[in-house]
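Can anyone check this?
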Amino acid sequence: MGMVVHGADLGNPAYPSFEMTKVWCFRVCEEFSNQATMEKELGLPVTAFMEGLNNEVNIAKLQVGFVNYVILPLWHCIAILIPKSAHMVKNCVSNVETWQEIIEKGNEGGGKDVDSSSSEEETDEEE
């Protein structure tokens, strides 16, 4: 049961809608950036992956690694235990492919900066 709760807690990359995954990812990355800023202000060591998350390509790179090395292995195990959850693995794979496309487009023409206010607007539209 602990694994299922953990999967639910980290379920954002497994949403069937990439746009919803992206909105929540941007919110989490904004929180990470705020934490890095506070760590700097307090003279604490900064958690390395929490810096530079104001660019869509950097966020996409973070997500590809996170999903491939943490989320997919977790959801593969959950899908073995609960076969009806196998679609979550497919959602993760699809979302990673979309993040990878963002990286490739960004490498061709730079990456656009993330506007944290746009994530709230997108969420309101989804609801």
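Reply from J.R.: I decoded it. Confidence is low (pLDDT under 50) at residues 116-127.
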